[in-house]
Design a protein that fits this description.
With 265 residues, the protein is mostly helical. Helix content is 73%, strand content 0%.
Length: 265
Amino acid sequence: MADTVHVELCPLIVNPLDTAMAISSRPASYLYGLEPGAKMHNPGNDSFILGAFIALVVFFIFNFKSLHRFLGVYGKALYKLRKSENVFDDHTASEARINIMLVVQWCFCVAVILYFWLYSVYMPVSCPTYGGYMGTIGRLFLLAVVYYVLQFLSYAVVAYAFAPDRNVGAQWLKGYEALNAYMSLGLMIPALVMIFYFEGVKIMAIVSLGLFIISKIVFIYKGFRFFYHNFWSLLYFILYLCALEIIPVFLVYRIAGMLVTGKMG
């Protein structure tokens, strides 16, 4: 038979003083805390975007009286069909300044809405980070400016070529400016919601698209009332819809998608 080995376990004698000193010398666990993770940047905390919106709001507050009168004039330009110019119509420098600022606001809101909507389509999981959206929103702003200017110039050419007289063409262009002025105010809320609440981007995109469609319908209806006279004018009007109202919108959307996804520039 194999030999059996007996091992006798000796009790471990611990000095209470040594134990107390070891515990007291070890740092408390709450001093370590939790290991910090990567901070998720909220576009609503960005000073540039907030500064741009605040600057626009402050400008309109200080020019509220002129803005109120300006929007009243533009409101009449939306639904009234006047074939002759009113001799009492006057245009001041403050109105021109407000018109420029409304155009800037329209372009800025369009750039913000396009960016967050396209970002949610191509990268729906995460909120955009600081390094990714500032330059893209700037390029989308320039794209919106180019779209607005080219649209206005195209409408001016159409008015010059097909309007029965100069006043009719001027009233049609006035309607374009009026619609974009009201659109710039209407798009302010969806743009702000998209910045501060990324989960609501799709809903705000639908609201923005609805405002855009309504404005286009009103403008097209106003142009139809101005320019329709016979069958041939209807044919020209259909060509106008395709060339100036449908194709440019899809082209701008396509370019904006390329800018957001980084496939351009």
